Amino acid sequence: MKRIFITLFIVLTVLLAGCGGGQVSSEVTPTPFPTPVRSTFTVERGDIAVEAKLSGRVSALALHTVFFEIPGQVREVYANVNDVVTEGQLLGELDAAQELRANADETQRIIRRAQIDLEIAKLTLEQYESQGRSATEIEIQKLQVELAQMDFDELMQSMGIDPDAALTDELDAQVAQARAFSPAEGTIISAVTVGRKVAVTTPAFILGDPGKLEVVADLAAGDDQVREMFEGMPVTVIVDARGGLELTGTIRQLPSPYGTGESEEHVIHVVLDVLPSEDTYQSGDKVTVQLVLASKTDVLWLPPDAIRSAGGRTFVIVNSDSGPKRVDIEIGLQTRDRIEIVSGLEEGQVVVGP
């Protein structure tokens, strides 16, 4: 019996061992984390130019720009494009002109009443003195003249009118704020339309010479690039209607305080070096004005992506024997593609990108 039990135990052990041998033990192999590949940049030597591009149009040579002195809505236009006007001619007026004229007329009547009271008091005094009236009557009338004079002066002061100035001139000046007059003889090359709302910085009328052409290019609002421009500065003008024809020219006028133009104008005026023709340019052509605001040759440079800033410091990262190293640098001219390296690096040196 004991022998049978031992035999059965051995058989069972063999069977269990066979079942266990059929199982495969497997372990999950971890996926290796990819090592990030950082881009590198090489310090190069070359030229850097800071450029500006402005959109413009060919138009008649502008000589004078006329503005309204107050904002408002245009009520009347008395001179249109291509009209020849003379110096002092009324070009247009705002809605406010009618109200100002009515106010001026009423002001004139009020002032005239005060003037009449003063004149009556003076004439009465002269009459009393010539008639030999009593000293008391004459003294009383002198006081009446003084009161009338005080009333007149206070009235003029309350209306903001200089008592010593010609009344008509003062009132006409108030009305003139809502009217635009031609500063000289010329031809209207641009004019506002009836119903348009204008500000004191809106060019209402532009006088020019239709026999001569120039390029007028717009400056973006708050554009600081104009600070780097000057009258007489060379430019390149690309004529869109002529398949990108490139012409040369110079800046004729900039807005004040950077040039001799009106401070309210946000444009530059450019004269071209060639005369207009069917092969070059014509009035109305759209153009692009290109200007080189600053340039340097044979300087070290890096692309913007290679340079970092933090904590008020400008720096790059370079590889060294001890690992990545931060190097402070000084930069100069900057463009969209290149930044000048003034100090801190040498030509050919390799820096690591972010």
Search tags:
about 35% strand; about 350 residues; four-stranded antiparallel beta sheet; six-stranded antiparallel beta barrel; single chain; about 25% helix; alpha+beta; 4 helices
Question: Topology, please?
Answer:
Layout: H1 2-21, E1 40-42, E2 44-66, E3 72-77, E4 84-85, E5 90-94, H2 96-131, H3 135-158, H4 167-176, E6 179-181, E7 186-191, E8 197-198, E9 205-218, E10 234-239, E11 245-253, E12 267-272, E13 286-302, E14 308-310, E15 313-320, E16 323-328, E17 330-334, E18 339-343, E19 350-352
Antiparallel strand pairs: 1-19, 2-9, 2-13, 3-5, 3-8, 4-7, 5-6, 7-9, 9-12, 10-11, 10-13, 11-12, 13-18, 14-15, 15-16, 17-18
- Which class best fits the helix and strand makeup? alpha+beta
Helix content: 25-40%
Oligomerization category of the chains in this entry: single chain
Rg: 43 Å
- How many strands, which pairing sense, and closed or not: the largest β-sheet? 6 strands, antiparallel, barrel
- The shape is elongated
SSE pattern: HEEEEEHHHEEEEEEEEEEEEEE
Strand residues, percent: 35-45%
Helix segment count? 4
Strand order in the sheet with the most strands? 2-9-12-11-10-13
Number of strands: 19
Distance between the termini: 83 Å
Low-confidence blocks of residues: 20-26
Rounded average pLDDT = 85
